[in-house]
Amino acid sequence: MVIGIPDVGLVGPIATSFMVKNLKLELVGYLDSNVLPPILLFHNSEPLMPLRFYSNDKNLSLFYSEIALPPEHLYSFSEYLLDFAIKRGAERIIMLGGIAVPNRINIQKPKVYIAAIKEEDRKFFSERNFPLLKEGFMGGAYASLLKQCYKKDFSGIALLAESHLNYPDPGAAASALTMLASILNFKIDIKPLLEQEEEIRVKLRELMKRTIESMKTSGKEYEFTVPAMYA
Amino acid sequence: MISEVEEAMTKPLISFERRCLTPLYEIRDSEDELILYVDLPKVRSKDDISVTLAEDKVIIDAKISSPISFGDIPIYSGQNYNRYYAEIRLPVPVEAKKTRASYRRGILEIRLPKKIKRYKVRIE
After folding, report:
1. CB proximity A57 to B under 8 Å
2. Which residue of A25, A66, A91, B72 pairs with A50 in a disulfide if CB–CB is 3.0 to 4.6 A?
3. Is B39 within 8 Å of B33 (Cβ atoms)?
4. Where are the beta strands (DSSP E) in A12-151?
5. Taking the domain B4-113, which CATH number applies?
6. CB contact under 8 A, A105 and B105
7. pTM of the full predicted structure?
8. Segment A70-88, tens digit of pLDDT
9. A141-166 b/e with 16+ CB inside 10 Å = b?
């Protein structure tokens, strides 16, 4: 199951929303809870839940959130989502996200780091020269999901593209998608995404603002912290 | 301060009256200068951007190359937006005359040297 949740650079929602449109995935369900804010979305006059599941007939499922998740409920959310994925027969979860780099403006093609829980996954990526995230804290929704994977010994993989911290970053989303396509062996043309880059940056400003607020209390600040084990 | 933050959170990033969008920005703080980054997608060149320093704030006014429509979302009132405008309050005084700006790949970078006099304190 591929997962896109608002986080650094909005890489997850930009990438998964593009996948839904371009791979013609079908809406198959939603996730709702009394801890989520009272928000409902309308598109072409039809109501849509903000947290939705999509799928195709080729063994690909996707979870996509239109809203920043409340930091205080990330634990229960992650626990529920992972249990659900396991019950539905998912082999692994792959999260699409960003990792903030201060010199992003100078980077033409963002590099994608892979954080993987299971040793066999790390070996798989290492043998293919995919760059693994080797050191440092991870915080936020994806860290919470990876913790659940660790506890349940389940395959959890986060693809983290170098990204702007505070601005929507379609270029980073394109890099994460390219990496995902090469891992899952499917074809996706990212050219339309790059062509719409500026339009996306303008239109996702509000979601970016809400996400920054949510990130402030979700452990993201730890990503700038050097672990005590290095002292 | 709290009310300022609350206001920023609840206020949309547009001004209907001015027909302009509020850009996202961040301020980085180094020893000698503040570095202000402003995200200005769809602004074609530096000639379309005006940067003004006024006491404790920077005023950004930029022309968007092609008007932006947000479709039928009611808060945008069906009108097109063709400018960015922001008044950004600075946390410390800066040297206006030494301030430099550059614009690359849709991001405006403004380097504002801090107006600080340093006094070495003797440790007894």
Report:
1. no
2. A66
3. no
4. 26-30, 41-43, 46-48, 51-55, 61-65, 93-100, 112-116
5. 2.60.40.790
6. yes
7. 0.90
8. 999 999 999 999 999 999 9
9. bbbbbbbbbeeeebbbbbbbbbbbbb
